[in-house]
Design goal:
This protein is an alpha+beta fold. The chain has 12 helices and 11 strands. The strands form 3 sheets. Strands 6-5-4-3-7 form a 5-stranded antiparallel β-sheet, with helices on both faces. The protein has a 4-stranded antiparallel β-sheet with strand order 9-10-8-11, covered by helices on one side. Strands 1-2 form a two-stranded antiparallel sheet. The protein is elongated. Pfam families: HTH_11, WCX, WYL. InterPro entries: CBASS_pafABC_assoc_protein (IPR051534), DeoR_HTH (IPR001034), HTH_11 (IPR013196), PafC-like (IPR028349), WCX_dom (IPR057727), WH-like_DNA-bd_sf (IPR036388), WH_DNA-bd_sf (IPR036390), WYL_dom (IPR026881). It comes from Kribbella speibonae. Keywords: Transcription, Transcription regulation. This is WYL domain-containing protein.
C-alpha cells in the first residue's frame, strides 16, 4: 500500500507542480505527518523532491524529472479518462484506487497527448448525480471495510459471511459462495449461491462481511452478463404484475420511475405512448397510475381498470356536493 502511495505522490507532483503537505494529504487521504514521512522516503530513494519554505511554499520535483511511458494514443487515453468519470467505483469502494489509476494513466501519456486528452475528458460527463428533472440520484454508501471483504472474497474465490438485512427483516448472518459483482444505476449487487440456490444481494443492505478461508463452490469461468439477464427475468416473473397502459409522453418518466421494468413501448396514433410495464404488485400499479390522473390510462388487466374506476367514483362523490358552490 505504501509503495502505491509513494508512486501517487510523485505523479501528483509531476502533474500539478508544487503542492503543500496539506493538499497532498487530502489527495492521498492520509495525514500530513504521513506525507512528510513519505517525502523523506522519496528523498532517501533518490527522487529529486525538494521543499520551498515560506507562506506560499510546498513540495516540488526538480524540473525535467519524469519516467517516460508511451503506447496510449489520444482516443485510448480519452476512453480511459471518460470511463473513470463514472460512479461505479463508488459502489464497489474503489474511488481511491481509481484516482490513483487515473494519475498513472495521465502520467503515462506522451507529452503531445497529455493536455489535450485531459481537457477533452472535461467535456464528457458520465452518470451525473442529478438528472434533468433536478432529482438527486442517491447511492447508499457501503462501509469500506465491508466492501473490501466482499471484493476480496469475490476475486479470491473464497466463501463469504455477510450480515444482511433483507426487506422487513432483522439482519442475519449468511454464508454464501460469491460469483461476481454487478452495478446497475448506481446500485451494487452481489451475485452468489447459498446452499446450492441462486441468490442476489444488494450491497447497501450489507452491514458487515467476512472473507472465509474455505474455497467457494462456483464454476471457474463465469458469464456475468448472462447470469444477470437470467436472474432479472426470474425476478420479474416472481409475483409481479404486468400492465398495459397509455400515457401522455410528458408524464412518461414519472410512470417509468414507479415501475419495476419496461418490457415494450410503442407510439399511439394520437401521439400518446403504449407501454407494457411490470409493477411490484397490484397496489403499486394502482397507486402509480392514480398519480398521473387523466395523463394515463390502464388498458389491462381489467382488475386494475376496475380498481381505478372505483377510486375515481369515490373521489367524485366526495366532492360532488360542492361543485355547484364554485363560481
Amino acid at each position: 500500500m505504501r509503495a502505491d502511495r509513494l508512486v501517487s505522490l510523485v505523479l501528483l507532483l509531476r502533474q500539478r507542480g508544487q503542492l503543500t503537505a496539506d493538499v497532498l494529504a487530502a489527495e492521498l487521504e492520509v495525514s500530513t505527518r504521513t506525507v512528510l514521512r513519505d517525502i523523506e522516503a522519496l528523498s532517501a530513494a533518490g527522487v529529486p523532491v525538494y521543499a520551498e519554505r515560506g507562506r506560499h511554499g510546498g513540495f516540488a520535483l526538480l524540473p525535467g524529472f519524469r519516467t517516460e511511458l508511451t503506447g496510449l494514443n489520444h482516443d485510448e487515453a480519452l476512453a480511459l479518462l471518460t470511463a473513470g468519470s463514472g460512479r461505479g467505483e463508488q459502489v464497489f469502494g474503489l474511488s481511491s484506487a481509481l484516482a490513483s489509476a487515473m494519475r498513472k494513466v495521465v502520467d503515462a501519456l506522451p507529452e503531445t497527448h497529455r493536455t489535450t486528452a485531459s481537457e477533452a475528458a472535461q467535456r464528457i460527463l458520465v452518470d451525473p448525480e442529478t438528472d434533468l428533472l433536478s432529482r438527486r440520484l442517491i447511492t447508499k454508501e457501503v462501509p469500506d471495510a465491508t466492501m473490501l471483504e466482499v471484493r476480496r472474497a469475490v476475486l479470491a474465490g473464497h466463501k463469504l459471511r455477510v450480515l444482511y438485512a433483507a426487506t422487513g427483516q432483522e439482519p442475519q448472518w449468511r454464508t454464501v459462495d460469491p460469483i461476481g459483482l454487478v452495478t446497475v444505476r448506481d446500485r451494487g449487487y452481489l451475485l452468489a449461491r447459498r446452499s446450492g440456490e441462486d441468490r442476489t444481494y444488494r450491497l447497501s443492505r450489507m452491514q458487515a462481511a467476512e472473507e472465509l478461508p474455505e474455497p467457494a463452490e462456483r464454476p471457474s469461468q463465469v458469464d456475468l452478463d448472462r447470469i444477470w439477464r437470467d436472474r432479472s427475468a426470474q425476478f420479474l416473473a416472481d409475483g409481479h404484475l404486468t400492465v398495459h397502459v397509455r400515457v401522455n409522453p410528458a408524464r412518461r418518466e414519472d410512470l417509468l420511475n414507479a415501475a419495476v421494468a419496461v418490457r415494450a413501448e410503442a407510439p399511439d396514433p394520437d401521439g400518446w405512448l403504449r407501454l407494457e410495464l411490470t409493477f411490484q404488485d397490484a397496489w403499486h400499479a394502482e397507486w402509480s397510475l392514480w398519480q398521473l390522473g387523466p395523463n394515463a390510462e390502464a388498458l389491462d388487466p381489467q382488475s386494475l381498470r376496475t380498481a381505478l374506476h372505483k377510486r375515481a367514483t369515490a373521489m367524485a362523490a366526495r366532492y360532488e356536493s360542492t361543485v355547484g358552490d364554485v363560481t
